[in-house]
Design goal:
Number of strands: 18
CATH topology of the largest domain: Alkaline Phosphatase, subunit A
Low-confidence stretches: 1-14
Number of domains: 2
Helix content: 25-40%
Radius of gyration: 21 Å
Strand order of the largest sheet: 9-8-5-4-10-1-11-12-2-13
CATH superfamily of the largest domain: Alkaline Phosphatase, subunit A
Structural class: alpha/beta
CATH class of the largest domain: Alpha Beta
Distance between the termini: 36 Å
Strand content: 15-25%
């Protein structure tokens, strides 16, 4: 463990009464939720349960995920850069044989070693080609949900194969996936082992495409004339109701006061599919703020005062931070790239950050970004002709990224682009890169979970 993480755990332990019970941990992850898609950021979408969390907890105004889901999920689970893990540029596709390397240690493994019951209910997206990549092999006592993204919300089919399982065995269930995942999470809370603290990871697939929503919720947003935005709003409303079920289960079980509930989105919203990131620039699959700055909340009534945090924080920081808060010793042997930020969060202050890096890749463009002191450099590189466009911002005073200082400060651009080059050299040769189409002759398995076991 890095010295700073050790010091954070020690200080946290000193601040808590010796008789206090270990906190439960509930991590709720939205899929493709935009900055302006929550009520507490002024959305027309009704999110009373998320708004309640934002009022009762610490709301982060500078929290960063990666521009796509597999990179964010890998960083969350390991506390290590997805560039090192080989999943920085793109997602793990259905036809990919790649997964988060088995040498990497995952957060639920540390919590399980500390005596926690561990469960996931939702989208995995960190590898499915082998049983050893699956959640039950990587620290989760209980696993329910799906291994790919973009499943049908009602049939739970991806590319013709059933992608819905319980503990590695496919199950056919009727129901809207958001409702099923929330219901499973609520049951896990209510039926938990009372002798052990709970670590619950709830990664919803909502509001990711395909755009599907219950008719009653579509009717609720009939005033929205854009059909994509209307369906997206209905899906977010359903997500919020699912969060409400989880919060109600915590209340009913008497767990709410001593449970850390963390909520955030895995990337910025896809504006072409109905999401909104205003006033931030850009969208999912870019490294502008609209692609990486996301809604985020941490509630722990027993230990955290409600408020708004200006701490710059990334998904990389969550493993060391949550472990320190819970006084759980991280069992990783490879060093974290993220930082333990529990004390500044608890104390309502902000610490300066080291360089922070982001990347994503599309069919036409590779996008990089680095935060260094007051600067943020966004670098676009065309995959067709190699032409580079640089955007240099003073991000604290210009969060909308309206003023490009690159022409005036070429020496800063040169320095920051060199930092990006050194960072991207960490990518393993066999890591995942963008691939829009399946290989010729590829066919999805009839049942995704059983395919992993072969």
């Amino acid at each position: 463990m890095k010295r700073r993480d050790f010091l954070g755990v020690t200080a946290a332990a000193a601040a808590r009464p010796a008789t206090a019970a270990p906190p439960n941990v509930v991590i709720i992850l939205a899929d493709d939720l935009g900055w302006a898609d929550v009520g507490f950021h002024g959305s027309e979408i009704r999110t009373p349960n998320l708004d309640r969390l934002a009022t009762q907890g610490v709301r982060f105004e500078r929290f960063y995920s990666y521009p796509l889901c597999s990179p964010t999920r890998s960083a969350l689970m390991t506390g290590r850069s997805p560039m090192r893990l080989g999943v920085a540029y793109s997602v793990i596709r259905p036809w990919s044989s790649y997964g988060v390397p088995l040498e990497e240690h995952l957060m639920p493994q540390s919590f399980k070693a500390a005596g926690y019951s561990t469960a996931i209910t939702g989208k995995w997206h960190l590898g499915h080609a082998r049983a050893s990549f699956m959640p039950n092999a990587r620290g989760f006592d209980h696993a329910y949900g799906h291994v790919n993204g973009a499943i049908d919300y009602y049939t739970h089919i991806r590319d013709g194969g059933l992608d819905w399982h319980r503990n590695g065995r496919s199950v056919r269930e009727e129901g809207y996936s958001t409702d099923l995942l929330a219901g499973e999470a609520a049951r896990l809370i209510e039926n938990r082992d009372r002798n052990r603290p709970l670590f619950l990871y709830l990664p919803f697939n909502a509001p990711h495409t395909p755009l599907q929503a219950p008719q009653a919720l579509l009717d609720k947003y009939a005033s929205i004339t854009d059909p994509r935005r209307r369906t997206f709003a209905a899906m977010v409303d359903s997500l919020d109701q699912g969060v409400g079920r989880v919060l109600a289960a915590l209340d009913k079980s008497g767990m709410a006061d001593n449970t850390m509930v963390l909520f955030f989105s895995d990337n910025g919203g896809p504006t072409g599919q109905g999401a909104r990131n205003a006033p931030l620039r850009g969208a999912k699959n870019t490294t502008f703020e609209g692609g990486i700055r996301v809604p985020a909340i941490l509630r722990w009534p027993a230990r955290l005062k409600p408020g708004v945090s200006s701490q710059t924080m990334t998904v990389l920081d969550l493993f060391p931070t949550l472990a320190a808060a819970a006084e759980v010793r991280p069992r990783n042997k490879r060093p974290f790239d993220g930082r333990n930020l529990w004390l500044p969060i608890r104390d309502g202050r902000a610490e300066p950050r080291e360089d922070l890096f982001f990347v994503t890749e599309s069919q036409y463009t590779v996008w990089y970004a680095v935060f260094h002191k007051e600067w943020k450099l966004v670098r676009e590189i065309s995959r067709q002709d190699g032409v580079t466009r640089d955007h240099l911002f003073r991000i604290a005073e210009d969060p909308k990224e309206e003023n490009n200082h690159a022409p005036r400060f070429p020496e800063v651009v040169s320095d920051l682009s060199g930092r990006i080059d050194r960072w991207r050299a960490q990518h393993p040769y066999n890591g995942v890169r963008f691939a829009a189409q399946a290989p010729a002759g590829w066919q999805a398995p009839a049942q995704w979970a059983e395919a992993a076991a072969r």
